[in-house]
Design a protein that fits this description.
With about 375 residues, this protein is α/β, with parallel strands linked by helices. The chain is built from eleven helices and 18 strands. The strands form three sheets. Strands 3, 5, 6, 9, 10, 17 and 18 form a seven-stranded mixed beta sheet that branches. A six-stranded parallel beta sheet has the order 13-12-11-14-15-16, sandwiched between helices. The protein is globular and about 65 Å long.
C-alpha cells in the first residue's frame, strides 16, 4: 500500500512528509487505519540523537489510535473493525518479564529500535526504495501502519481517537510513575519536575492517590498555569526556587515522593530532585536522557545517610494490556482529564510546526489528526 508518512533522513533534519509503502500483514500482524497520533518528546530524541538509531531513514511516531482494517494469519486477539491503541511497548504475555507481571519490560522490547518486524525480522515500511525503521516498531506518523498484534490493544468504540492516542505512551508513563512506581499514598507531599504531557499525567495520578500537597515545577509559565488546573497546590519555575518554600510547607520534611518528568533529563537534575526528597523518600526518574550520558551529580553521603530511594521507570511500571483500558475507563467516568491535555491538533503536513510548538512550550500535548487528504 502506498500512502504518506513523516520520515527522518538524518540527525537534526526536519520531518519529511512524503510517499511511503506499507507492507501487508503476515502471520501475527494487523493493518491499521490510523486516526490520531500523539506528538511525544521521545520522537524528538531521535531527531537530536539523544536516542541513537542504528541507521536512517526512520519513521516517526509511537503514540496513536485507529481501526483494524486487515488481519493476518494466526492473529488471536484482534479482528477487522476493532478500535485500537498502539502501545509503544509490545507485550507478548508469556516471556519471563510478562509472566512476572512486568509487561512494560517484555522481552520483545529488545528490538524496539531495530526496525525489524517481530513476526519475521523484515521491514514493513519503505521510502525512496530504502527500508525504514519505524519508531518503537510502530511509526504512527502515517495514516496506515502494519504492526504485530502484541503492539495493539483493543479499546471501546465510543472513545475519541485523539484522546485514545495519548494512552499509548505519555499518560500511562506519567500516571503510573506516580501510582505504580512512586507509590503515592494518602497524605503524601509530591513534587513533579516537568509538567508537560507526562508530568500532568503524573500529577493526576498523585492527586487521585491522595497526595495533599502537589508541587509542580516547570520553567514555562503556561505549563505551571495548566498544572494548577489539573490539581497542583503549588507551582515553581525551578527546583532551586521550590527548595525553601517546600521546606516551610512540610516543616522541614520535604516531599515523600519526587518524580522527574522533564523532556530531556540531565545529570544535575538527579541531585536537584533528591534535595526536594524526604528522608526515606523515593525519587522516580521517568524523563529520558541522552544514551551516551554517563555522569550524574549526586551527594553520595546524603544519599546513604538519609536512606533515599532512586528508581527508574518505563511505561509507568505498568502493564499495557491492563493499564490502557483502565485509564480509558477512568476517562469515561470523569476520573481522568485527557481532553484538556490536548493543546493543539495538526495535520500530518504540519508536523514540524507541531514539534516547534512543543519546543517553544506552547503545548501540553499536540496531536496529529489524520484526514482523507493524508491517505
Amino acid at each position: 500500500m502506498k500512502t504518506k508518512g513523516a520520515v527522518l533522513w538524518g540527525l537534526n533534519e526536519p520531518w519529511s512528509v512524503e510517499e511511503i509503502e506499507v507492507g501487508e500483514p503476515v502471520a501475527g500482524e494487523v493493518q491499521i487505519r490510523m486516526e490520531a497520533a500523539g506528538m511525544c518528546h521521545s520522537d524528538h530524541h531521535i531527531v537530536t540523537g539523544a536516542t541513537p538509531m542504528p541507521s536512517y531513514p526512520v519513521m516517526g511516531g509511537h503514540e496513536g489510535s485507529g481501526v483494524v482494517i486487515k488481519v493476518g494469519p494466526e492473529v488471536k486477539t484482534l479482528k477487522e473493525g476493532d478500535h485500537v491503541v498502539l502501545s509503544f511497548i509490545p507485550s507478548c504475555g508469556h516471556c519471563p518479564a510478562c509472566a512476572n507481571g512486568h509487561q512494560n519490560l517484555c522481552d520483545l522490547g529488545m528490538g524496539l529500535l531495530s526496525g525489524m518486524a517481530i513476526s519475521d525480522g523484515t521491514f514493513r515500511i519503505q521510502a525512496r526504495g530504502q527500508d525504514v525503521i519505524p519508531m518503537c516498531l510502530l511509526g504512527t506518523f502515517s495514516p496506515y501502519m502494519t504492526v504485530h498484534e502484541t503492539s495493539a490493544v483493543k479499546i471501546d468504540d465510543d472513545i475519541p481517537f485523539d484522546v485514545a492516542s495519548l494512552v499509548g505512551c505519555g499518560v500511562p508513563t506519567g500516571w503510573g510513575s506516580a501510582v505504580n512506581v512512586a507509590k503515592v499514598t494518602p497524605g503524601d507531599t509530591v513534587a513533579i519536575i516537568g509538567v508537560g504531557g507526562v508530568g500532568l499525567s503524573a500529577l493526576q495520578g498523585a492527586v487521585q492517590s491522595g497526595a495533599t500537597k502537589v508541587i509542580a515545577i516547570d520553567p514555562v509559565a503556561f505549563k505551571r498555569d495548566q498544572a494548577l488546573k489539573f490539581g497542583a497546590t503549588h507551582v515553581f519555575a525551578s527546583a532551586a526556587e521550590a527548595l525553601m518554600p517546600l521546606m516551610e510547607l512540610t516543616a522541614g520534611r520535604m516531599a515523600e515522593k519526587t518524580i522527574i518528568t522533564v523532556g530531556e533529563i540531565k545529570g544535575e537534575d538527579i541531585e536537584a530532585a533528591l534535595l526536594l526528597t524526604a528522608k526515606a523518600g523515593r525519587c522516580v526518574v521517568t524523563g529520558m536522557g541522552r544514551m551516551e550520558d554517563m555522569d550524574v551529580k549526586l551527594n553520595l553521603f546524603l544519599f546513604t545517610m538519609l536512606q533515599k530511594d532512586l528508581q527508574g521507570a518505563i511505561f509507568g511500571g505498568g502493564n499495557p494490556r491492563h493499564d490502557i483500558p483502565l485509564l480509558l475507563s477512568m476517562y469515561k467516568s470523569g476520573q481522568l482529564n485527557l481532553d484538556d491535555m490536548i493543546t493543539n491538533t495538526y495535520t500530518l503536513d504540519d508536523i514540524n510546526t507541531g514539534y516547534q510548538d512543543m519546543l517553544d512550550g506552547k503545548n501540553i500535548r499536540g496531536v496529529v489528526k489524520f484526514t482523507d487528504a493524508d491517505r
